[in-house]
Amino acid sequence: MLRHTLRASAAALALLLPFAAACGGEAKAESSSDLSSVTLRVGATGWKQEEAILRFAHLDDTPYKVKWSLFQGGDQQLQAVRAGALDVASSSEIPPVFAAADGKPDFKVVAVQRATTLNQEVVVPKGSPATDIAGLKGKKVGYVQNTTAHYFLYELLKRAGLKWSDIDAKPLLPNDGLAALNGGGIDAFASYGTSIITAHRQGARTVGSGADILSGNFLWSARDSVLKSPAQRAATADLIARITKAYAYVRDGHEDGFAKVTAEATHQSVAQAKSDLVAAQNQRPTQARTVGDDTIASQQKVADAFTELGALKEHLDVKSFWTTELNTDLKKVL
Question: Considering the chain, what is the average pLDDT of its residues?
Answer without folding.
Answer: 91
